[in-house]
Amino acid sequence: MDDSVNDPANDSVAGSGTDALADRVADAGAAPVPGRPGPGSPPGRPGPGSPPVRWATAAELSSAQLYGLLRLRTDVFVVEQACPYPELDGRDFEPGCRHGWIERDGRVLSTLRLLVEDTPDGSALLRIGRVVTAADARGRGLSAALLRSALARCGPAPVVLDAQAHLEGWYGRFGFARTGKTFLEDGIPHVPMRR
């Protein structure tokens, strides 16, 4: 296991011509301590002794870690949700992409990814996506811990996501608000949201 995966010096989100934004994300500091998210945090906190949130680029992941992240996403987004659509979209290896995950005993329990995106007006924003927790690990606050960690890295930068419609209220507890109409993605209703 490469210890650089947990080194805060490796937490910068770079690439796609958004160095200033990447610097702000890198300067956001380390993730909150699991089980101690701080005042005003949304419910669903993991308990004491919960595994830490880890961050890495795809290139920094071991093949076993990358397989674990992609397998969990496929198990949930393709198999469990019965969506016969390709899960892999080519964005996992973008220079600005960071993968956050929580694992126990080498098994990935929850993951998300953080992307840097350019906008038509030349500004940049951050996109959170592929937020997922294994069926047998749900209800422990793992996705909440991941989302808090991602938002800490983002600092005040604008952040967007496309939430499955039934999770709109959950994301709202983290400061996200709907920005448009419900749309179908892979046959599942989603809503665009921004913080």
From TrEMBL:
Ranges of residues in domain N-acetyltransferase: 56-195
UniProt GO molecular function: acyltransferase activity, transferring groups other than amino-acyl groups
Record-given protein name: N-acetyltransferase domain-containing protein
Matching Gene3D superfamilies: 3.40.630.30
Listed SUPFAM superfamilies: Acyl-CoA N-acyltransferases (Nat) (SSF55729)
A Pfam family recorded for this sequence: Acetyltransf_10
Origin superkingdom: Bacteria
Composition bias, Pro residues: 34-51
Region feature Disordered, mapped onto this chain: 1-52
